[in-house]
Amino acid sequence: MEGGKLKRFYVVYDGLETFAFVPPHTTHQGAHLRDGIDLKRTMFMVVTALIPCLLFGMWNVGYQHYVALGQAATFGEQFIYGAIKVLPLVIVAYASGLAVEFLFAGIKGHSIHEGYLVSGMLIPLIVPADLPLWMLAISCIFSVIVAKEVFGGTGMNILNIALTARAFLFFSYPTKMSGNVWVSGNAADFTADGYTGASALGELANTVTTKDPSIVDPIMKMFEPDGMYSISNAFLGLIPGSVGETSALACLIGAAILLFTGIASFRVIASFFIGGLTMAFIFNMIGLNAYMTVDPLHQVMLGGFMFGMVFMATDPVTAAQTPMGKIIYGFFGGFLSIMIRVFNPAYPEGVMMAVLFMNVMAPTIDYFVIQSNIKRRLKRAAILAA
After folding, report:
1. Which of 228, 285, 288, 306 has the most CB atoms around it within 10 Å of its CB?
2. Is 347 helix (H, G, I), strand (E, B) or coil?
């Protein structure tokens, strides 16, 4: 209560109570919509949509580990190994990020913002399973403070929180976010003949700087129908990569949940997918290197494209808001994702850079869409008046 000894910790109590129960208070200022669902429930639905990616990621971490060792293992052994690796990432991501949320809520005297409920789940799913926990904690703290709180908290940030954390890790600790780090375990123990721990995009990036058949041909063979990175394996997710990004199927299940509940925008998802396919088709026609010859549909199944399309680009805070703006925003997000990953081998995961760039451009896109609508209506009114 006001003036009590523990008033500083009221935000903790309030955050836990409103998470479990619908809050009795209502908004008193500003324009708002009245609905039967609040922000916490919306965020909870997004977390629910992420569960297929989380569960599959746990199993795939164990599966890739035992494949790399050249050992047979049951489904249960694979899942348990993956859970032991992944769950600490989830716990640390939530603990470090929410600690900052509680701190700022106490300093500013407002209730806990709900946005980090989703970010705390997204961040562990877009990093390697063996990422040191202290690095993950620092990236979460950095993203909450720099990409969120300095802008005013949930609903005010211009950059996606989870991708900001990944960008921080990518540029601060590049050796932990690239190379042969996508399979959990000690590389010295991996005895499987010809096995690689690199991501599919990491392998393809090696074909951009050389045309030596002795290097290019073995890599491209892995992307054939019977290869390690075949389109079927990429769709199901049976390839090395970040914890939750490898399975296009799991991402599509999440997309179905978000679209059914009306949380994600179909315009953003559809245009993002079309934009990626368009850029891949253009590369197919150019064909300057082996990377460009990858089948367009195969191209969008690789890396974090599907995950970024479903869970990153659709962020209602950082995406465009107008109907036409969402289409433009999504198309160029997908278009640039494929362009960056192929043109610049230093950024094999182009989705991160593309979505962050489009986050920055989203307000400008909306501005010009609105101005175009205003001019069109004024012109129509002038014609009717005449």
Report:
1. 306
2. coil
Token pair for residue 155?
A: 């609903």
H-only helix segments in 109-148: 116-125, 133-147
Q: How far apart are CA 297 and CA 277, in angstroms?
A: 7
Task: Using the structure block, give the residue that is written with the tokens 């996508």.
Answer: 182
Q: Say whether pTM exceeds 0.90.
A: no
Which alpha helices (DSSP H) does the chain contain, by range? 10-20, 39-69, 75-108, 116-125, 133-147, 161-172, 200-205, 213-221, 231-236, 248-260, 266-286, 296-301, 305-307, 323-343, 350-385
Nearest Cα to Cα of residue 357 among 322, 312, 327: 312
Angstrom CA distances, 372 to 8, 44, 77, 378, stand at 49, 36, 58, 10
Q: Tell me the C-alpha to C-alpha distance, in Å, between residue 315 and each of 121, 164, 381.
A: 14, 13, 36
What region, left, alpha or beta, does residue 237 occupy, with left being phi > 0 and alpha being psi -120 to 50 degrees?
Answer: left
Taking alpha carbons only, the member of 81, 170, 91 closest to residue 133 is: 91
> How distant, in Å, are the alpha carbons of 81, 87, 135, 314 from that of 84?
5, 6, 18, 30
CA distance 230 to 96: 37
Phi, psi of 304 (to 5 degrees): -100, 20
